[in-house]
Amino acid sequence: MPRNKTKLFAGPRLRQLRQRESLTQAALADVLDVSPSYLNQMERDHRPVPDHLLQALCEHFTITPAWFSDTREAHKVQALRETMADPLFKNSPLPLAKMAEAVRQSPDLSDAFLTLYRAYAAERERQENEAAYSLPQEPYETVGDWVQEHRNYFHELDRAAEVFYENLKIEDGALSTALAAHLHSQHGLTLAPDSDMEARGLVWRIDRQKRRILLPPNQPPESTLFYLAQIIGQLEHNTLITRILRREGPKDANAIALARVYLGNYFAGALLLPYMRLLHVAAQTRHDIDCIRRHFGVSFEQVSHRLSTLQRPGQEGIPFYFLKLDIAGNILKSFSGNRFALARFGGPCPLWNVFRAFATPGQIQVQLSQTTDDSIYLNIARTVSREGLTYADKPRQIAIVLGCTIANGRETVYAAGLNMEDHSLVVPIGPGCRACVRDNCSHRSLPVSGRALDTGNDARGVVPYRALPEGRRQ
């Protein structure tokens, strides 16, 4: 049977577009020839945006329908765009508009195509490296997609952590003391230092025979706090985690194991930063991460990660994307509550401020950037690496970036001093050179895949290769 067309609920995007153009609801309703109440219902997602109004909006504001696509759809379009950039498809190029149309009208077929391509890419890599066969999708990719499908929010686990916090007896604001006391009273476990754990690559271990929790002696207090919350989640909420995984988790055994670790970490973060308390403090401080971390006694990274999970229905926070990567550009964590989609193949864009953060350790870098779908983001980047404990110690160089749309950015302290209306200094960033269509970028490291190259001798660009427009051949 033919698939029914999905209704487009794009309230936040519609409201963002109207506010960007400084239009009242009455003014935009007049442009669309609808009543202000009807427009208000569309902005609140009580009504979908019909096709004829979508077309009118695109024509009036000179945008494409992809601008209104939801987060999941935008990420899928990005994945399809990168896949079609493979030289394998050089003789059958597909315009971006057609990709967006395919994702909207045939999402299941698009998923099947991406799965088939991953299988092909894995087999090609196996043959090239003469290595053992690898799965079409690595377990960490499976878990990443699964978390993204849930918008990085798990309600049952989040509420369980919040209820636990509210029932905990915390004296003088000492959460670590309260957690240690709880572990002792409820499980008979006491804390003990173990100087050999770092050499063994462990951050905590339960010695069940001696009823002790062993911890390294030199780790930061916020790390100890997080580990105690992890242990409580494992001891007291393992049944809930198992129920979530059985009901809706990934199917592969390794992916399930990684998803269990992720949910344990999720519970720990939700316990240290309870949802409604964090939402209140974030609004009070205009999302000043340093103020929030001092209020709760946690780390910069813990606050940043937790802010990206505030997607409780009816009580949503700002939809942030969150990424953590090392100095070589390897992505360690990647979650997105908005349209921002990271490249799956190749390294991130070098113009991103997260790389500049490595040159200014411990300092916050703020950047306005524009992606190739014309969305503008406010990005906050900072290193979060620990200091070396000895001369021989070589701690990993880590940085994180937290980003939101420019409309939401106005609600944060990081917009202070920025002219949010002047976009002349907005930095254009791409999804990685392989899939980026910006030909005039002097930072390009290789040509865009899937398009014919202009090898004419009458002109030379800022890079020694330029791609012909889509559909044109030499």
Question: What keyword list fits this structure?
Answer:
globular; single chain; 474 residues; three-stranded mixed sheet; alpha+beta; six-stranded mixed sheet; 11 strands
Structural commentary:
Helix 2 packs across helix 3, helix 6 (96-105) packs across helix 7 (107-129) and helix 14 (275-285) packs across helix 15. The strands form 3 sheets. The chain has a 6-stranded mixed sheet with strand order 5-4-8-7-6-9. Strands 1-3-2 form a 3-stranded mixed sheet, with helices on one face. The protein contains 18 helices and 11 strands. It has helices spanning 11-20, 25-32, 36-43, 51-61, 71-84, 96-105, 107-129, 139-149, 155-167, 175-187, 221-236, 238-248, 253-272, 275-285, 289-296, 300-307, 353-356, 406-409, and strands spanning 190-193, 205-207, 212-215, 321-326, 331-336, 365-370, 376-383, 398-405, 427-428, 453-454, 466-467. The chain is globular, with a radius of gyration of 24 Å.
Explain the layout of strands and helices.
Layout lengths: L10 H10 L4 H8 L3 H8 L7 H11 L9 H14 L11 H10 L1 H23 L9 H11 L5 H13 L7 H13 L2 E4 L11 E3 L4 E4 L5 H16 L1 H11 L4 H20 L2 H11 L3 H8 L3 H8 L13 E6 L4 E6 L16 H4 L8 E6 L5 E8 L14 E8 H4 L17 E2 L24 E2 L11 E2 L7
Parallel strand pairs: 1-3, 6-9
Antiparallel strand pairs: 2-3, 4-5, 4-8, 6-7, 7-8, 10-11
Helix pairs in contact: 2-3, 5-6, 5-7, 6-7, 8-13, 9-13, 10-11, 11-13, 12-13, 14-15, 15-16
